[in-house]
Structures are given as C-alpha cells and as structure tokens.
Amino acid sequence: MGFGDLKTPAGLKVLNEFLADKSYIEGYVPSQADIAVFDALSGAPSADLCHALRWYNHIKSYQKEKGSLPGVKKPLGQYGPAGVEDTTAAADEDDDDIDLFGSDEEEDEETKKIKEERLAAYNAKKAKKPALIAKSSILLDVKPWDDETDMAKLEECVRSIQLDGLVWGQSKLLPVGYGIKKLQIACVVEDDKVGTDQLEELITAFEDYVQSMDVAAFNKI
C-alpha cells in the first residue's frame, strides 16, 4: 500500500489514478488522511493530473481548519492503493529503526520507579553481604618444664586465653622423652585479628607451667 514518492511524477500519477473515482483519501469527508497526503506534496499537481489537482485545491481550502478535521494521521505508506512500493515509508521505517535502536519506547514513570527500587534493594543486599574472612588453622606444641608439671592445669591455662577471632580445637598429650609430655592443641584464627606471635606471648606468660611454644603446623583455610 502507498503512493510511492509523491514528490516524483510517478508518485503523483499513482495519486491521480487513485482519486479518479474518489473525492477523499479515506471515507466521504475531509480527514487527517487527506492532510497527511497533502503535506507530503511539494506543490500543486500539474493540470494533466486533473483528479489529483481537483483534490489538492479542495483540501487546500481546509488549511486553516486542518487541525480540527476528523481522524488520526498515520504513516504515509498506510494510505493509497495496494501493491505500490512506498519509498518514503521505507525511509521512515529506517529512521524508526534507528530511533528504536537508540532509545526504544519511553518508559513510564511506574516502570522506572520499579527498576530504581529493585536496584536499591540489590545494592542494600550486596552491602550487607559479609566480606570473605581470611582464616588459618594452627597446631601448637606447648612444652612444660618437666615431668612433674600438671598438664591438665597447663591446658586449662592455654584455653583460658579468649580473643576475638580465636577458637580452640582438639588437643592431646604427646611424649617428648624422659617421661615428659607436651600439649598439642589446635586452634582456628582470623588472620586480621590473631597472630602466632601474639599467641606465643600469651601462652608463655603462664611461666609456672609453660617452658616454650612452637608452631607445629599452619594452614590457610
């Protein structure tokens, strides 16, 4: 459907033939369809296109009141006879494609509000998500002074050390020699809060029971 390019002789010829048995582009009264086609012309058709010229002069008389004519303007390619390639409409469609690619239809305020609320909720959830905490598993060897040291009391002293980021684990007594046993005790620490130097200082402070402390194993978790 369409008239082709109405600024060319071929397009005007199609318009003239279309109006041979019609007074208006659509229906039986002047409408926005007539205004749409009229505005696409570059001027009055030549005298040999009598039907088009008749229609042109008639619609021209409605220019002062064209805004009040009935109907809604449609793309030019939607008017006229079927089977005619409308190059103007094709160009308009290309422009529409570009517009759609660039901006799409305008989002209404409700849609924008919903997107903003979802984004805010996502950011809040992300902010509350705890950061990954670096931890280490440490195995300590705590040696007593001699075989007469109360190892139960020694372990009690070690476990009495309570720090933020320190969790004590399992323990056992291992023979060292000459009847002496050492306490081997596991713990998990948060690297940013507790270090082996700090643990050594605190454990060896129980000098009545502890001779020394060594790190038997150290593994990142």
TrEMBL record:
<keyword id="KW-0648">Protein biosynthesis</keyword>
<dbReference type="InterPro" id="IPR014717">
    <property type="entry name" value="Transl_elong_EF1B/ribsomal_bS6"/>
</dbReference>
<keyword id="KW-0251">Elongation factor</keyword>
<dbReference type="GO" id="GO:0003746">
    <property type="term" value="F:translation elongation factor activity"/>
</dbReference>
<feature type="region of interest" description="Disordered">
    <location>
        <begin position="76"/>
        <end position="112"/>
    </location>
</feature>
<dbReference type="GO" id="GO:0005829">
    <property type="term" value="C:cytosol"/>
</dbReference>
<comment type="subunit">
    <text>EF-1 is composed of 4 subunits: alpha, beta (alpha subunit of the eEF1B subcomplex), delta (beta subunit of the eEF1B subcomplex), and gamma (gamma subunit of the eEF1B subcomplex). Interacts with elongation factor EEF1A1.</text>
</comment>
<protein>
    <recommendedName>
        <fullName>Elongation factor 1-beta</fullName>
    </recommendedName>
</protein>
<dbReference type="Pfam" id="PF00736">
    <property type="entry name" value="EF1_GNE"/>
</dbReference>
<comment type="similarity">
    <text>Belongs to the EF-1-beta/EF-1-delta family.</text>
</comment>
<feature type="domain" description="Translation elongation factor EF1B beta/delta subunit guanine nucleotide exchange">
    <location>
        <begin position="135"/>
        <end position="221"/>
    </location>
</feature>
<feature type="compositionally biased region" description="Acidic residues">
    <location>
        <begin position="91"/>
        <end position="109"/>
    </location>
</feature>
<dbReference type="InterPro" id="IPR036219">
    <property type="entry name" value="eEF-1beta-like_sf"/>
</dbReference>
<comment type="function">
    <text>Catalytic subunit of the guanine nucleotide exchange factor (GEF) (eEF1B subcomplex) of the eukaryotic elongation factor 1 complex (eEF1). Stimulates the exchange of GDP for GTP on elongation factor 1A (eEF1A), probably by displacing GDP from the nucleotide binding pocket in eEF1A.</text>
</comment>
<dbReference type="InterPro" id="IPR001326">
    <property type="entry name" value="Transl_elong_EF1B_B/D_CS"/>
</dbReference>
<feature type="domain" description="Elongation factor 1 beta central acidic region eukaryote">
    <location>
        <begin position="100"/>
        <end position="126"/>
    </location>
</feature>
<dbReference type="GO" id="GO:0005853">
    <property type="term" value="C:eukaryotic translation elongation factor 1 complex"/>
</dbReference>
<dbReference type="GO" id="GO:0005085">
    <property type="term" value="F:guanyl-nucleotide exchange factor activity"/>
</dbReference>
<dbReference type="InterPro" id="IPR014038">
    <property type="entry name" value="EF1B_bsu/dsu_GNE"/>
</dbReference>
<dbReference type="InterPro" id="IPR018940">
    <property type="entry name" value="EF-1_beta_acid_region_euk"/>
</dbReference>
<dbReference type="InterPro" id="IPR036282">
    <property type="entry name" value="Glutathione-S-Trfase_C_sf"/>
</dbReference>
<dbReference type="Pfam" id="PF10587">
    <property type="entry name" value="EF-1_beta_acid"/>
</dbReference>
<dbReference type="InterPro" id="IPR049720">
    <property type="entry name" value="EF1B_bsu/dsu"/>
</dbReference>
